[in-house]
Design brief:
With about 100 residues, the chain is mainly α. The protein is built from 5 helices and no strands.
Length: about 100
Amino acid sequence: MMVVQRNFLTVLSLMMLATIIRKSKGNPAIATGYDPMDICIENCAQCKKMLGSWFEGQLCAESCIKYKGKLIVECEDFASISPFLNKVARLPGKRG
């Protein structure tokens, strides 16, 4: 009997979690209580620390605010950070 109750509670918990994630439009940050804009700005700060003067951290943070955290940068993903790389990032000797 205890096994049946435990399985029932497990299934019920998973169903509730799935409902919460669906209602939050699939955004796990909302389902877990994290604000996507906070995560976005924190990631901008982390990328600035990692990339230094090559990365426009303020521009990144302004983008987080403008798009309400919907476009979160990942420091190791060139496609997500490329809009925030400045001219210093160009290789020496290359003219563009």
